Amino acid sequence: MNEGIERISSGELSLRMNVTASQIRQDLNNFGGFGQTGYGYNVSYLYNEIGKILGLNNSHDVIIIGAGHLGQAIVNYSNFEKRGFVMKALFDINPDLIGKKIGGIPVYSVDDLEKYLARNPVPIAALTLPKEAAEGIAHRLVTCGVKGIWNFAHTDLALPSGIVVENVHLSESLMRISYRLANIGEEK
User: What pairing do the DSSP bridges indicate for beta strands 60-65 and 35-36?
Assistant: First the structure.
């Protein structure tokens, strides 16, 4: 869409995505008929429909627990807001950060988390704090009604069913890169 392409075939998508055209057609057919034989897919329509499937047709307010380097990088990444993820607040224990703004977003004390969420319910919280604090903070968030946790703490969280957790392990990603580099030419 950003390239001004109005129509694309499953074959062209296949070349861009390194997946077979048949797999693309099958996957998209699981969600409805987005394309036409001999015509392909209307890029704008497909973009909007995939956005609806992913829930990106609505905006999602997000808070970040941990205003260190990673939390600040997330706040300052403008593409999140373009995709409907609106950063509302940061929380930290560092008195040098509390009361300041980072990327225009206020930093509050973690002690004020429940009070903030009572006045400003949000569906998603990102955890960019040490793993030792993650489980306790996650349970506090769940008690306050947060339903989705984007977890960058290097620990897997045990939370009640109905809470969506996406664990992001940065070191594992680097290990996958290392493995793939070590095995270039051996992959099928």
Answer: unpaired
Q: Is residue 110 part of a domain?
A: yes
Do both 123 and 68 map to the same domain?
A: yes
The answer to the question of residue 182 being in a domain is: no
Residue numbers of the domain that contains 40: 7-53
Q: Look-up: residue for tokens 């129509």?
A: 7
- Whole-number Å distance between alpha carbons of 109 and 92: 5
Cα 140 to Cα 80, 83, 104, 134, 187, distances in angstroms: 25, 27, 25, 10, 44
Q: What angle do CA 39, 31, 3 make, to 5 degrees?
A: 50
Q: Residues 123-169: pLDDT tens digits?
A: 999 999 999 999 999 999 999 999 999 999 989 998 999 999 999 98
Domain identity same for 92 and 142: yes
- H helices within 40-158, ranges in order? 43-53, 69-76, 79-82, 113-119, 131-143
pTM, entire model: 0.75
Do the Cβ atoms of 92 and 109 come closer than 8 Å? yes
